[in-house]
């Protein structure tokens, strides 16, 4: 998969996307991630990316020209591969990012992410360029950069060959709609707190039964809303 990000804060990305599983996925060639500075596509000497809203009112609006030009340039790479990129605007008005949406996005060849800012983006960008508007939840952030990184993180870990076998099973578990069962590691006792006896029993039928029951119990207690989907 190829992921292009268009942003006015390109420096925010490398410290996050250059770590851990995403770093490994990039090094293994499972994903190519490129960050593009929107200011490179401006045409005035001050590299202006925003302007005052027509009709008046507070705040600034992201100008359409640098965004159209940046995305036109990035689309050319997809045209050569004979596929249409998905052009995603990270926006508080978007469809909420869920595991289901992440799975759908992970099947694509090329994502172009546009990070919004200020009071908003010129409506013509949404109408004529963007194919998907995505939000990460109902709270107000300062821009689309953190949401873009969240989206990249959740999509990249779903790409073939990125996760090992052991961690891919939690993909299934969340999709079954339950939280994880409680986990323990050594020591078997700390500050008088003991690991549940069943886990030390070696009886895998009993252990599996216990874990299933615990997963239900934990879900009922912490996220009862999830049980409606099971
Ligand atoms: C002035 C009204 N604001 C809407 C509540 C405008 C506005 C606020 C914050 C416009 C952009 C932003 C910056 N946030 C994002 O670009 C954003 C976001 C978010 O704030 N929450 C959850 N998901 C996302 S995705 C992009």
From TrEMBL:
What is its subcellular localisation?
Answer: Cytoplasm
Q: Which residues form the tRNA methyltransferase TRMD/TRM10-type domain?
A: 1-228
Write down the Pfam families for this protein, in alphabetical order.
tRNA_m1G_MT (PF01746)
> Is Amino-acid biosynthesis among this UniProt entry's keywords?
no
Show the catalytic activity.
guanosine(37) in tRNA + S-adenosyl-L-methionine = N(1)-methylguanosine(37) in tRNA + S-adenosyl-L-homocysteine + H(+)
Physiological role: Specifically methylates guanosine-37 in various tRNAs.
Q: What is this protein called?
A: tRNA (guanine-N(1)-)-methyltransferase
Organism of origin: Candidatus Ghiorseimicrobium undicola
């Amino acid at each position: 998969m190829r992921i292009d990000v268009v942003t006015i804060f390109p420096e925010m990305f490398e410290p996050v996307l250059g770590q851990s599983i995403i770093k490994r996925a990039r090094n293994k060639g499972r994903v190519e991630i490129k960050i593009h500075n929107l200011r490179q596509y401006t045409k005035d000497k001050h590299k202006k990316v925003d302007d005052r809203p027509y009709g008046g009112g507070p705040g600034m609006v992201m100008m359409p020209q640098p965004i159209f030009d940046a995305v036109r340039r990035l689309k050319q790479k997809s045209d050569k591969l004979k596929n249409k990129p998905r052009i995603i605007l990270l926006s508080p008005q978007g469809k909420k990012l869920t595991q289901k949406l992440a799975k759908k996005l992970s099947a694509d060849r090329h994502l172009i992410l546009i990070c919004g800012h200020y009071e908003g983006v010129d409506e013509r960008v949404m109408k004529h360029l963007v194919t998907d508007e995505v939000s990460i939840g109902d709270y107000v952030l300062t821009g689309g950069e953190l949401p873009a990184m969240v989206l990249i993180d959740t999509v990249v870990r779903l790409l073939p060959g990125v996760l090992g076998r052991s961690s891919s099973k939690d993909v299934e578990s969340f999709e079954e709609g339950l939280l994880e069962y409680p986990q323990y590691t050594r020591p078997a006792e700390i500050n008088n707190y003991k690991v549940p006896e069943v886990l030390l029993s070696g009886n895998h039928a009993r252990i599996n039964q216990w874990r299933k029951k615990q997963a239900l119990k934990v879900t009922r207690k912490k996220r009862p809303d999830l049980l409606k989907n099971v």
